[in-house]
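Z., the sequence and structure:
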Amino acid sequence: MVASTGGFTVNGSHKYAEEGTFNVSVAIADNAGHTGTGRAIATVGDAALHGTAQTFNATTEKPFTGTIGKFTDDDAAETDPATYSILVDWGDGSTSVGSLQLLSPGHWAVRGTHQYAHTGSFTVKIAVTDVGGAGVGIVSTAHVI
């Protein structure tokens, strides 16, 4: 494509495996043998996370253990749960760290264990962050009998 100043615009695409800052260069040659090189820096953000709420039932008689939410990572190649941190606000004034179960590439179940002291419905807030800086909030509901 010819730019209005007589130069050229070079378009291209590339999918980066991870976030970061990368040097980019392009070599250009015309039919007459003239060459040139263009350089730039590409800043690539972390792949997005997307959360899904989960309604679950618990009792005051024994601790609940199970899935409290789900999320997907657009970087489906990430399969190490240590990449993520999970903080759970159980809705009754207490918080704890959650755990993860890989369901399939890029798809995770957020799990937790908690003992509720009172019956009722509780709004459970889950904060998921990964080492690359992406994060998602998930709001689930616990029905405690």
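The longest strand covers residues 120-130. The chain has a mean pLDDT of 90.

Let me know what you think.
H.
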